[in-house]
Queue: 2 jobs
Job 1
Amino acid sequence: MESGNIIQITNLSKTFNGNAVLDEIDLRLSHGENLVVLGKSGAGKTVLLKCMVGLIKPDHGDIKLFDRDIVNCTPAQLDEVRTRIGYVFQQGALYDSISLRENMLFPMLRNAIFLKIPAQEMEERIERNLRSVGLLDAIDKMPAELSGGMKKRAGLARALMLKPELMLYDEPTAGLDPFTAKEISDLIVSIQHEHGTASVIVTHDMKCAETVSDRICILECGKFIAEGDYKTLRTYHEHQVSMFFTT
Ligand SMILES: Nc1ncnc2c1ncn2[C@@H]1O[C@H](COP(=O)(O)OP(=O)(O)OP(=O)(O)O)[C@@H](O)[C@H]1O
Ligand SMILES: [Mg+2]
């Protein structure tokens, strides 16, 4: 039976070298919802995102995306689900040896077996997405010629190439000046509003969290220790919650 959830995670656990990074985690994400995951460095936020796209296999637990089981599925089924997800990696993850244009083209070519996108439509999408992040002028540049902020925006534009229903952002504003960070946060909100995209946003940037979140979960010692909207969590006195709001 269809749950209507974009993400449905039940009892998810992952241990590395005896360290329970994720310990029986449950998580739901609804259509069109923006969920922010907060947690200290090393809390397991990136591991959680990577489990969601099948890059890390959990020790046990269920992960359903769009009501499809992505833990016990074939590589081909996983590839097909991934065409519906945009992943903005913590480190940008552009391919260094090809131009920005080719980096944008790559997700469409890699998934050509599932998506029969005509060549002209590919070109139009590349230009549209680069324009939306202010990088159309840089289309023929190599990644090494881009600043840190430009690489972040390029990673975001690339994640949007397949018109995803779910976006996963890993620290989208880290290392950016406050002005560029605000631009990225505003872009995340406009992606949600214009395309009805649901998103999970991992961040330490509380301004970003305030701007983009419908709901916030705090990950600590392998568990979600608090959940609520920004305004509600800000009133909590427990140190593990309040420390995020007092920086
Ligand atoms: N492939 C791996 N092999 C072994 N340990 C790993 C692996 N990936 C992550 N870890 C460990 O899991 C823990 C959580 O890592 P993770 O990258 O998810 O943290 P994070 O919350 O994203 O931190 P940050 O805010 O610094 O990005 C860390 O202790 C890390 O060393
Ligand atoms: Mg991380």
Note: The chain has nine helices and ten strands.
Job 2
Amino acid sequence: MTQVSTTSTQGHVSVHNPTGQSPVVVVCEHASNFIPTAYNDLGLVGDALASHAAWDLGALAVAKGLSDRLNAKLIASGTSRLVYDCNRPPSAPDAMPHQSEAITVPGNVGLTAAQRQNRIDEFYEPFRATLAEEIAATSTPVIVTIHSFTPTYHGQKRTVEIGVLHDTDSRLADAMLGTASQYTETLVLRNDPYGPEHGVTHTLKEHALANGHLNVMLEVRNDLIQNAQQQDEMAGCIANWLSDALVRLKVESAVTCRE
Ligand SMILES: [Zn+2]
């Protein structure tokens, strides 16, 4: 690396590499499991607070690695998705989920309209606004969201290792799916383990589809990104794979790897 990366944090949103020059804008909505003290851990104890229910394990490290390699801005939420899931619109029932897999979230049961609005104002709206501003400040922006998922869900093992997700605009996803085997030996699938029918493409719809920007959502199985070395290797893999796809799609200055 030729440059030291910086991160600026305002409230519950952080922008990593705020001066990044890449057209790629990296997004990590489920980066943190932090729950502000006032929420009393939402009534949860023990493992739930550290589990995939609260955040996407390893996703922030991969997103940062990608951001550093591409000299791209990264916008990350600093709060657990159990408080507010920044990849959901305020109208979604699971924006403040009272159930996550087998875990009941006591602090989210029976929320009043005012309580919901407080969380929208405190967590979702600043995230949405910051992301919109950073995208507006980027010429020909490309939106790339980084997520991770648990290897076992409701007792079922998942074989997919990297999911390439899209909504109605599949240009970037198609380009990446077409070259996946050149960049990774993992099992890469389209819209798996989630797809638009699960409501997971909110950020893409809100910030990319509405303006015609290229976009993709990447879901990495979290057992593949458990330690710093795995996270760094995954970031490198995605950086090269994504850069190649953008060259194929003729996005200028996409390849600005700093290594
Ligand atoms: Zn996620």
Note: The radius of gyration is 17 Å.
